[in-house]
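BUG-347 | component: ligand-complex export | severity: low

The export step for uridine-5'-diphosphate jobs runs without errors, but we want the raw record kept on the ticket for reference. Input record follows.
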Amino acid sequence: MRILVTGGAGFIGSHLVERHLDRGDEVSIIDDLSTGSIDNIRHIKKNPGFTYHIDTVTNERLTAELIDESDLVYHLAAAVGVRLIVESPVKTIETNVRATELVLSLAAKKRKRVLITSTSEVYGKRTEVPFREDDDLVMGPPSKGRWSYACSKAIDEFMAIAYWKEKLVPTVVARLFNTVGPRQTGRYGMVLPTLVQQALDGREMTVYGDGSQRRCFTHVSDAVGALMKLAEQPAAVGEVYNIGSDQEVSILELAKRIKQLSGSDSPIGFVPYSQAYEEGFEDMMRRVPDLSKIKSLIGYSPRVDLDGVIASVIEHRRSRSISSQVPATPPVAAARPEARAYSGANT
Ligand code: UDP
């Protein structure tokens, strides 16, 4: 198959590219390196089946050509992180909405298959877990910047489904929950690479709030396997699927486990949300996917458990010594109090 991955130099994109190349597919990527990195694809640059374009998806001529040459498009390129949303809100919302609209409209010309990645963030402030794909989305007000990320991704989902219903473009939407693993940067504050790097450096591990908030972490290999199966399934067309793990852990428990598995002496420190993010910041206390829909379609079951996930990140960071990616202070508070980041295309 000929595959196009937008955002292919990103954390998840680069793993997806690798898996398709291993399978013998031809893969092209387009990435503007805004949050992705050439380091993520350096090892595959010489693969004869691989072509890369460092450019923006909104370069219509290039994207049109790449889509035309592809059998399947994975659209992962997106502005991720509320830091970007707060600093460049117009650019961020436009990137998420415009790029998706362009990809879908170009794919519509020859009805190419498109998988759009979305995020568990679209569930917003919902408190009843687990989250099912047909649950109502509970958004906060437009005055709080973080919700524009959820809303822009929700618009992407509406568009994907509309293109299927109205123009018969075979689309599928994947809502990724906290996806982690090698190559994820801590630069935007994502908790797992941040805590691992702090533990490896012997610095204080920054747990926000009292650490009782809970998350479910999915290894990128499980997430990518699910994306590939969803993209191939005719029955997935026009549908939304959660991809994640339903093994919950509190952030404090996570910090303790990281400390233990890395053999670190780092102290665990508690940082108030007001200092880490902004006054009145609302964190989601729990975010658990209901996985029954994806299980019944593709038999999805995450293989890597929490310890495996943590171990893979420790090993990767030890082997690469990338401490410069994690700031010593709570990541964004120092620069701008209300800024924070998400796993975005990653969660
Ligand atoms: N978090 C933390 N310390 C950090 C970074 C994040 O305690 O250094 C917390 C954060 O407040 C949230 C959880 O970890 O409750 C997951 O944060 P992340 O940004 O990784 O993902 P998301 O909030 O999108 O689930």
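Assignee comment: Attached the raw record above. The longest helix spans residues 146-167.
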